[in-house]
Specification:
- The protein has a five-stranded parallel sheet, sandwiched between helices. A four-stranded mixed sheet has the order 4-3-6-5.
- The chain is 43% helix and 21% strand.
- It is globular, with a radius of gyration of 16 Å.
- The chain has one domain: P-loop containing nucleotide triphosphate hydrolases (Rossmann fold), CATH 3.40.50.
- By secondary structure, it is of the alpha/beta class.
Amino acid sequence: MHTKKVKLFVFSAPSGSGKTTIVKSVLLKHSDFVFSVSATTRKPRNSEKDGKDYFFISEEEFKEKIRNNEFIEYEKVYDYYYGTLKDFVEKSIAGGHSVVFEVDVKGALSIKQKYPEAVLIFIVPPSIEELKKRLLDRKTETTQELKKRIERAEMELSYKDKFDYVVSNENLEEAKKKVYEIINKEIN
């Protein structure tokens, strides 16, 4: 009888690529997996809950955690800090749970440096034009924020070759299926 391995699955993608939707479906499919809740200094969006989507903290608190070396990785993105709390991840691993991360590309590479066994999965949008359309349809950003996200998307896409797997999200169901196959291969 073989047992499933405890793994770290790190998802990255430009905003609007569908990574959050894919990550949520992975967590539904694997109820024993734990989502690594990141800390952030940005304000919550309407549907977001503190401690579930993010740990929403002040910039002062965040900087204190940086000084205390409490993050595996952190990054300033779009004027806000985002970071992965070391304690949360270590407790999950010790409890025998695989951990799912949703972080920016630099955060993903930092996690891989500290945990070489981490599996990096990059979700690619079909095109920059489709990405713009998805972001516009979301109606969560100002014109200025939208412009920043598109510029950042181009930078993030240049990192995709540093990931273990690249999954195209042209069709959401196909992308989910591909991700499930990767996870099953990695944990068995």
